[in-house]
Amino acid sequence: MSRGVLVTGASRGIGRAVATAFAARGDRIAVHYGHRAADAEETLKALPGEGHVLIGGDLADPEAARKIADAAEAGLGGVDVLVNNAAVATSPETAHPVAGVSYADWQRIWRRTVDVNLLGAANLSYCVARHLIGRGVPGRIVNIGSRGAFKGEPDHPAYGASKAALHALGQSLAVSLAPHGISVTSVAPGFTATERVAARIDDDLRAQSPFGRVGTPEEVAAAVVYLASAEATWASGAILDLNGASHLRM
Ligand SMILES: NC(=O)c1ccc[n+]([C@@H]2O[C@H](COP(=O)([O-])OP(=O)(O)OC[C@H]3O[C@@H](n4cnc5c(N)ncnc54)[C@H](OP(=O)(O)O)[C@@H]3O)[C@@H](O)[C@H]2O)c1
User: What is the best residue among 42, 85, 142 to mutate for testing ligand 1's pocket, by most ligand atoms within 8 Å of CB?
Assistant: First the structure.
């Protein structure tokens, strides 16, 4: 059965791969983007199947988050699956090691990171869950977290903290939304070869995993599709490591 799937941050990278994987199994996708409209158009055009829609909006803005959820609900005829993928990720521009950043930049980067990575996902989860509860149908929320929540992000502490909080948000919602038939899970990918990080991949990064390589967006997407399946309902509350045994949690 075709489901409505809202994938945030699907203009490229992991979001694009997730959108493609759901579309390949016959789902209708709301391809969300922040400011890369042309790239998001490319994602949309390349999707197999039909009934897909394109939705832009800055997730740092709570009102925009509500509009994104409403537009996806209307455009898809109901959102059954939400994938919280969009994030302010690690990059030279967002680096903020304590010893090397001004107090003003420290605050600016923390605020932006938390606004998008945590509050954006929390607001969308609220809006989508309320639509599901209102329609009286089951649903799935899958968060794209990060290995960095467990391993630490010394140059991007706001990012690591926001992903730890996202995992925790998912676990709280897994409990509160289960009575409504909504499962909530997270994946915690390690280094994954997306456009954003392509130039940074070197032998040291590959050597983090005993497989001698980094992950692929398609590997993350396959796990997300599984966690959003009816068969994975019992995984609700889980945080699934996808890091090629590069970091083992005890
Ligand atoms: N790649 C990795 O190694 C890795 C590892 C662990 C976890 N992850 C996680 O996987 C997810 C995707 O990573 P990626 O490498 O594919 O990143 P990416 O290429 O930088 O994609 C990030 C996406 O988020 C969107 N976005 C960013 N800020 C936004 C905002 N304020 N409002 C709306 N959308 C916004 C971007 O939209 P626009 O481009 O249209 O602005 C883009 O589509 C992220 O949650 C990241 O933390 C990635």
Answer: 85
